[in-house]
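Batch job 17 of 40 flagged for manual review because the log was empty.
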Amino acid sequence: MSSRSALTLLEVILATTIVAALSLTLIGIVRQASDGWSSARSSAEEFGVAEQAFATLADAVSRATLNDYASFSAESRLRTPPSCRVESDLRFICGPMQAGDQPLDECDPTSGEFSSVRPGHGVFFQATLGNLGSDLELPLLGLDQLLNTCGYFVEVGGDGMSAPSFLDRSRFPEQILPKLMELREPTQNMSVYERRGYDMSSSGFGWFRTSLTTRKSLRVVAPNIAIMLLLPKEHVGPETPVGPTYYYNSAQQSGKELYGSSNRLPRLLELTMVVLDKATVRKLYSQESRDPLELKGAFIDASEHRTELYQNGGTPSGESLEDHLQAKHAGYRIFTTTVALRSSR
């Protein structure tokens, strides 16, 4: 009686085929896991940059100051006790950039169009940032408490300001993306003091609009920021907005009835920033589509802030902004914090 001592050719081929199939399956699993890990790490790095920018924004806003002082008129000095009013040479303003009754951005009066797409809100103020710019021949030390005009807003446009100068545009064409912009005007160039006739009651926007037009003293803080929202408040809580249209101007009485006078800072400012990943930005934004999330005209009623952001009504289609992002299969994060302004009272 004989026994088999070797495999047949057919068995060898079958075994080899099974091993090859298992190997290909294992390679696919490893590659998929590796791609997922790389994608997760890339997204974490992208959102990490945005988180750092968010912290920078919150810190700068918290340092806003008006350096206000008491002013006595000749008439008030005759009263017992004499009455005074609060005055300030400085300004604080926040609100919708290109929406509502008083947009902070300046449009062309003939066409009614804005030069750039700037969705959401912006904030402009003075703070002790100690920035003297780079045009000085010799650095000046010990002046880190000097005032600067500062501002933050989101702008949709080309990546020219953040791309390296040596980049070959024939191989890497301009990319359209939303980005968080910072205005930081050097101390010696602050135009807030250039109001005509030194009118301290002036509520004009020229002290920051000029830089928006000339693009002087602007820089990109972080890319892929879809929108920034700013809600001035008196107390912590969802139902305590100071400006019903998100609008707050320290040079005006309107919108600050809770404080009783002008030239005061809001006590709190709720900051919200919506960040997209690179893949979502490449998919949604282009020269022809600079407002893919339909943000134009949204977020102008402060009482609907959370509803528009998380529930419904945030876009013309009736969806909330978060629902809109999910419907587009967007990769996103929403950062929110409430900042206490140190100099408010």
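Reviewer: the log was empty due to a logging misconfiguration, but the result itself is present. Confidence is low (pLDDT under 50) at residues 196-202, 254-260. Unflagging and moving on to job 18.
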